[in-house]
Amino acid sequence: MADIQKQFEDFHNNIKLKRFGENATLREKRDIIINKIKNGLKDKFEDDENGVPSVEFIDQGSYAVDLGIIPEDGDYDIDEGAIFDLYIEDYEDPTEMKKWIKEIMDGHTTVPPEIKRPCVTITYSIDEEPAYHVDLPVYAKSKYDDDLYLAWGKENSNSENKYWEVADPIGLNDYIKNSFSGDDKKQFKRIVRYLKKWKDIRFTSSGNSQPPSVGITIAACKLFSPYSEPNPLTDKVEYVDLKALKNFVYNLKNSFICEWDYEKEEYVYSIYLQLPVKPYKDIFEKMTKNQMTNFYHELDKLYNALESAENEPDPHTACKLLVEYFGDKFPVPEAKESRYTVGKSNAPSSFSALKE
Prior knowledge:
The longest helix has 23 residues, at 289-311. It is built from eleven helices and twelve strands. The chain has 356 residues and is an alpha+beta fold. The chain folds into two domains: 17-173, Beta Polymerase, domain 2; 181-340, no CATH class. Strand 9 and strand 10 form a beta hairpin. 40% of the residues lie in helices and 19% in strands.
């Protein structure tokens, strides 16, 4: 097996997105939005007899758990939860708080803020092209329990599609952060980022064709096992991302259920993965049977490519096999590096050396 750990780690550095604390631009935009909403609420409710609603914000998504990658389409997606210290029983229409945010943020960006089913989206653009957008899920509490509830629905949704759903964004962050520790956690993060980039390369971004990133992350929390082995050259135990990734892809692929589709008269594949916190729903529920079947087959192709790379003694050839699945950010060493392949030697023979 060729040693391509360096290429994997270089690939990781090429695709890794810095956290809010490290990325000044993203941190600045997030803070501007937070301050604008808080000040806007003060202005809007300064004369209200019930006072100004209190709201706190939490980082969510890949930024909160340090698993972000540089997006393939250049449109960065930031999630920032807005938790109102209000009771859902007093707000029959879950979109009311969303409308406050939309009204306050209107005019802040060239693209008007948009109320979507799970959030309010603020889109920043550069040269009239989306550069990144901030999704603001809105939460409130209940008089009858200690849970948070997520506001679902658009402005013009019918009553059936406007509702409060129990949620635990803080618990989800903690679950992911605490799944691994130390150097195992570093390999876990690398593996998740590899799969996220693969997802961007191999799936269309329209609709629900792509498996959700949170699904890949939670699957890794449950199915990933750190992998390391002794390196005879360094006499140290070292992580091997190629094998760790291959093993995880194998476990994920084997989590699918093969079912017979009587209408199409063919086998299809389904995957079910429960959210580890409330509301405990299936993370892949929005994907159709066709989309899940395609997900399975793409995983199968990736597994075969990883296995071929593992069996390839030449680092140059091994890495070239993986570019199709991870994109051109995956480095391919010069062919001459094959002389360092374990088990081969390009050193001159004693007889040739004497002749020279």
